[in-house]
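Incident log, support desk, overnight shift.

02:14 A customer reports that sequence design results differ from what the structure should imply. Their input is reproduced verbatim below. On-call engineer (initials T.W.) acknowledged and began investigating.
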């Protein structure tokens, strides 16, 4: 019998490009959440933990980040760790695991070749990534073990062919044929590379292939992320028991919203009521809103920034419509102010960028208010 924890795609040091100010929050928590994986391993008294690649975002990662991770490894030094490099932490002269510090981590074994490795309770068949942009299936190195006693576990990093929507299969890098399980007779194929948890069946309908997904969700649109897997296999040929364990801490929500008129503010408020307590929120706004509602709109959004760890709002394509009174020219009794209004309206007529249009409309509104309130 073998019991192990499967994890992958920690992507430590990821920039979080496209996340804006959420980037640093995501970076920091990815390191913290490693504890949740190794605590589960302790609690479940597993034989080992299998790390299926992309543990670091790249090989040029700062030593500071490496030290943070090694510090955590040392805290759980009784747990054997088997680490397969992926495409981000790829094997090669500058591989992060070549650094001196890793040679001193007693409980860590980096799987550098496809040679089988005896581990407590099973034999591992590693399929390390040797080229980032390869079209080669590294699981081809797994030998046929159907007649060999013991539990056989292969570990690879790549994309399972035919198992996700893609325009052209021939363009896929790091391809993996799910048929390798039937070809070789292995009990289980542990995979990394996808950030979402998925399982796949062999030709007998038994789930023997699994992605754990990333231990901490990396972006708004990942489902079944933020987990590791507890895998138990009683004996050779038995059905693997695959149990996801929650390890991620951040919760995410993303919503596209079409604004129509003042009533849209109510709908927006209702939506916000439904996402109380969500950490990372992204709101994408389209459509239009009367300029007179802008103050209320700004206040609603400002308050949301106080209710989430990170609140991102993308409203470049939201158009604030000009109130009718701005359409007709006003005589301010002052030639400079009159000229300013004419100039702003000319600019507005020629401007297609919604963000700039909004600024011009605001300037016009302020100008008219100024004209009404101040005796020139
Ligand atoms: Mn990868």
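02:41 Re-run completed on a clean worker. Output:
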């Amino acid at each position: 019998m073998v019991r192990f924890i499967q994890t992958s795609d920690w992507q430590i040091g990821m920039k979080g490009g496209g996340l804006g100010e959420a980037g640093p929050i995501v970076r920091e928590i990815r390191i913290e959440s490693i504890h949740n994986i190794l605590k589960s391993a302790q609690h479940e008294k597993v034989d080992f933990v299998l790390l299926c690649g992309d543990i670091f975002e790249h090989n040029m990662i700062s030593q500071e980040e490496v030290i943070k991770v090694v510090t955590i490894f040392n805290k759980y030094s009784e747990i054997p760790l088997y680490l397969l490099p992926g495409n981000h932490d790829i094997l090669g002269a500058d591989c992060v695991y070549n650094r001196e510090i890793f040679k001193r981590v007693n409980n860590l074994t980096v799987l550098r070749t496809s040679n089988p490795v005896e581990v407590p309770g099973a034999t591992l068949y590693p399929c390390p990534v040797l080229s980032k942009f390869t079209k080669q299936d590294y699981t081809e190195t797994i030998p046929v073990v159907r007649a060999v006693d013991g539990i056989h576990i292969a570990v690879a990093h790549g994309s399972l062919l035919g198992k996700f929507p893609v325009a052209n299969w021939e363009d896929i890098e790091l391809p993996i044929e799910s048929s390798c399980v039937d070809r070789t007779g292995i009990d289980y194929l542990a995979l990394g590379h996808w950030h979402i948890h998925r399982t796949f069946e062999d030709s007998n309908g038994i789930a023997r292939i699994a992605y754990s997904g990333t231990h901490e969700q990396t972006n708004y649109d990942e489902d079944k992320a933020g987990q590791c897997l507890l895998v138990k296999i009683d004996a050779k040929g038995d059905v693997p028991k695959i149990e996801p364990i929650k390890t991620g801490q951040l919760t995410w929500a993303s919503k596209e919203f079409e604004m129509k008129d003042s009533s849209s503010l109510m709908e927006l408020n209702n939506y916000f009521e439904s996402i109380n307590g969500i950490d990372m929120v992204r709101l994408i706004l389209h459509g239009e809103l009367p300029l007179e509602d802008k103050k209320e709109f700004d206040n609603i959004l400002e308050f949301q920034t106080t209710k989430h760890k990170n609140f991102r709002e993308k409203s470049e394509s939201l158009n604030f419509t000009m109130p009718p009174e701005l359409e007709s020219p006003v005589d301010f009794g002052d030639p400079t102010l009159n000229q300013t209004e004419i100039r702003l309206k000319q600019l507005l007529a020629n401007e297609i960028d919604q963000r700039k249009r909004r600024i011009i409309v605001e300037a016009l509104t302020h100008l008219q208010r100024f004209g009404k309130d101040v005796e020139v």
